[in-house]
Amino acid sequence: ASDSKVLFADVLRDVIAEREAVVIVNADIINAVVAHCDLKSPIQVSFDSRQVRFRQDGIEIQGRLIEGKFPRYETVIPKNNNRIAVISRSTLAAAIKRVSISANKATNQIKMRFNGSSSLTLEASDIDFSLQSRMKINTEKQENFPGEHLLGVRASFFLSVLGTFGKEVAEITMLLGEPTRAMLIKSDIDSDRVALIMPMQIVD
Question: Is the dihedral of CA 84, 125, 104, 92 positive or negative?
Answer without folding.
Answer: positive
